[in-house]
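hiii, so i know i said id send this last week but things got crazy w the move. better late than never?? heres the sequnce for the chain we talked about at the cafe, plus the structure i predicted for it. fair warning i was half asleep when i ran it
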Amino acid sequence: MLLTSAVAIFLVAYILIASEKINRIAIVLFGAALMLAIGASDFEKAFYSHDTGIDWNVIFLLLGMMIIVSIIHRTGLFEYLAIKAAQFSKGDPKKSLVYLATLTAVASAMLDNVTTILLAIPMTFVVCKKLSVTPVPFILVQVFASNIGGAATLIGDPPNIIIASKAGLSFNWFLTHMLPLVVVVLIVMLPVWVFMFRSSLVNSPAEKQAIMKLDANQFLQDTKLLKKSLLVLTLVLIAFALHTVTHMEPAVIALFGAGVLAAISGLKPKDYLPEVEWSTLVFFMGLFIMVGALVNVGALAKFAEFLKDQFGGNLATASYSILGISAVLSGIVDNIPYVASMVPVVSELNAAIGAANPNALWTALAFGADFGGNATIIGASANVVAIGLAKRQGIEISFWQFAKYGIITTLISVALVYPYLAIIYLSA
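okay and structure toks below
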């Protein structure tokens, strides 16, 4: 009864979010409260449990990076970089889209997709303003690129960190098993994205010429603060890259960087805290409680057991199924708790099958979760962050507007994984 009620609450909340008739923050907060009220979760599990509660590492990672980005924004750096990017593309929106998407994907592999989006999207707003085009295609494509690029490395996407931690996979494993296909997918998707948004990627020759005449240096406002900000940001990014060595949580690194920069910037809290996306943080908290309740009542575990029973005897069938199901569910639930629930299942499947090549299932899970996160607004953390940043600028991107392009991106990218699995792992 409790399991059925919890699933029903989640499904109704999801439908309401998709309908966009009610504010999504109000929905997740009410849904989280209902989960607690019916006993699907409790205070301890919702707020203190690593498996069934709010992922405070994600929340404080976002908070720390939002503060850093807010302070950097005051230096004019984003405007400077935006103008340089627009001039590099000769004022052509299509070329700018390709350049920004490529840079976002590369950065997401080196950092994580949430951090990348926080750094990239503010620059995108300025680029689009200078190009005189709507920023919506750029925001969507950069989100898609960040989720795809993040699949390439252990630190690029939170699901990868979970898989690596619980399956004992190394940084080099991801470079060997994930990076080659990520490069192929990006090469395929870049012209697809340009084609999908072609009608919005048009400006006049006069607008192109105006961009080329701009002096980017004029937009740098506070060089002293800029130097301090770049120093702190560089140290933070280095610390992120050394995560597997230091084992320091990303949230700790981000908060430390935010604290240091806030202290040496000379700014008051009122100067940078208003730019923090508080609504996004609240949305994540409510969503984590709701999904955590599903984990607590065993909904995802039952589903995982079903998969094990259905596909436990055949490596190819299991791999293809894990890939497809992961892509679908990661677009619906949020790929972080989904992966956390599926890791033990994949371990048991590998043991049950006695697979000579266990990498097939891990690769299928990672690609399905990472690429599936592109399907909907709530599929991945980067999606929610980007939509929140856009809304702050008065740009509304609806659930279905995102899904229309996100589902196409997911279908194409996931479709490319199937032959990859077949050739690399399942051909013997």
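btw The chain has a mean pLDDT of 85. thought thatd interest u
miss u guys!!
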